Amino acid sequence: MLFLLLSILVIVAQGLLGMADWWTLSSNWLLAGLINFLLAALFTNQHLISFNNRRYLIYSWVVMASILNLSAICLESDVEQGKQQLLVIGFASMLALSFTCWQQKDIPAKSLLLGIIIAILTLFYIPSLLWIVWLIIILSLLLCYSTHNLYCLLSGIVMGVWALYCLVFLFLGEEEADAYLLGFVNQWSDLTYDLPTFLYEGHTRWIFPLFLLATIAVFLFINLMQSSMNSLRERSIYSSIGWITVPLLLLLPTDWALYLSLSAVLLSIHILLSLCNEHSLSSLRGYNLLVSLFLLLGAGEPLLSLLIDYIQTIDFSPVYSWWPWQ
């Protein structure tokens, strides 16, 4: 609970310092809490985590909220904030639904729904069509890949795109509907692999993405090398989280803010699975340090700069005026 209160204080500090608008900061915080509560409920229902340890979802909540807010503060995104939040919701929903497909070779309804989710996300960000690569990797690692499921997945995408075209045509007109379809051809030329564009001026603009990329690399190594889990299903989920991190980086360097926001979902899932099951005291201390560092990144630099500026305005001459060798 202490970390949750500290995260609220960090958001208040970020708002007072003008690092981002209040709506963005508060909505990202609430979104992180909602996603983590739903993931915890799903994992409890699937017997992947213990109900008694669900209090540790505060750790994943705080980490995810910090990453979402720092991405909005430090990095410039081509995707609007509202659309980016919808993409994060869609990505988390896609992962949550796919994790319920363990060892199921015949899941036409779920495969169709996964395809429809991707189709809906293309309405906000056309390159999300590439997320089908992640789904194929996840289905393979969860031992539920089959040509039947693949055909249902592709059918869901086609049906979803067609349904969206009809809805856009009906409510927004033919011009908007045609622009939506042409986006599948034209928007690929806008993709670039440049370094991220920063909004916030300060050391945090470099520290945050570098620290988060290092954190992702560490968790990627842990996920891929994880061999002490209690069940084959848990090992498969850890492997899927690790393996889709690589395509995630390769497919989304065009929008670093979105990439880091989606990475927050993967980190949250890892924290939930790790802390809400059996964990050692050393791992808990490590997560305490991780959460503390993310909170410090939130507003540590601007607060430190303000403190230094304030100290420089103080007249210390009465303190050292008695010193004879000045």
Describe this structure in words.
The chain is globular. Helix 10 (232-251) runs antiparallel to helix 11. It has 13 helices and no strands. The chain has 326 residues and is mainly alpha-helical.
Q: If you average the pLDDT, what whole number results?
A: 82
Global structural class: mainly alpha
Helix content: over 70%
Give helix and strand order, one letter per element, not per position: HHHHHHHHHHHHH
Poorly predicted tracts of residues: none
Q: Helical segment tally? A: 13
The count of DSSP E runs of length 2 or more, i.e. the number of strands, is: 0
Task: Please give the largest β-sheet.
Answer: none
Write the layout of secondary structure elements.
Elements: H1 2-16, H2 22-45, H3 57-74, H4 81-98, H5 108-122, H6 132-141, H7 147-171, H8 174-186, H9 204-225, H10 232-251, H11 256-275, H12 281-312, H13 317-320
Helix pairs in contact: 1-2, 1-3, 1-12, 2-3, 2-4, 2-11, 3-9, 3-11, 3-12, 4-5, 4-11, 5-7, 6-10, 7-8, 9-10, 9-11, 10-11
